[in-house]
Design goal:
Blueprint: E1 8-11, E2 14-16, E3 23-25, E4 38-42, E5 51-56, E6 61-67, E7 70-75, E8 80-85, E9 90-94, E10 99-103, E11 110-115, E12 124-125, H1 128-134
Antiparallel strand pairs: 1-9, 2-3, 4-11, 5-10, 5-12, 6-9, 6-11, 7-8, 7-10
The structure holds thymidine-5'-diphosphate (TYD).
């Protein structure tokens, strides 16, 4: 697997109930390198759907597969790699300036995204060539 600088899987602390009542995971500010200003989530995604297809100028995101699984292609303009997210205690940190595409959503998949800022369409590159130009590539 190629590694893309600063894109990484972060382990989310997991508490396993000693009485067998399930698991609990918690994201506190100290496990991710930004303050959370927004949380959104994708759900009811058809299995043949494709999401993402953009990069952000400044936004940092932490993506968690709360339920089910999906794949995330991350691309810094030079290298790309595809990462399967399928454990609710492992999230993907996506720094600014990374193109991403998500597909292969399993039935019932829920993708939560913790974001470093409010929604701003101006922060998006939705055109891959514009993204490459911005990266001087
Ligand atoms: P988009 O970020 O393109 O979704 P994805 O990357 O999952 O395919 O957003 C889809 C639409 O939702 C787009 O019209 C913008 C809107 N949107 C908001 O209004 N607020 C938000 O916080 C987000 C993430 C999207």
């Amino acid at each position: 697997m190629n590694t893309i600088k600063d894109v990484k899987i972060i382990d989310i602390p997991k508490i396993i109930d000693p009485k067998g009542r399930g698991k609990l995971s918690v994201v506190e500010k100290n496990i991710i390198p930004f303050d959370i200003k927004r949380v959104y989530y994708l759900y009811d995604v058809p299995s043949d759907a494709y999401r993402g297809g953009h990069a952000h100028k400044n936004l940092i995101q932490f993506m968690i597969p709360l339920s089910g699984s999906f794949e995330v292609l991350v691309d810094d303009g030079t290298n790309k790699t595809k990462i399967m997210l399928n454990k609710p205690h492992k999230g993907l940190l996506i720094p600014k300036g990374i193109w991403r595409e998500m597909d292969n959503f399993s039935s019932g998949a829920v993708c939560a995204v913790l974001a470093s800022d409010y929604f701003d369409e101006e922060d998006y590159f939705r055109d891959y060539n514009e993204f490459k130009k911005f990266k001087n590539l």
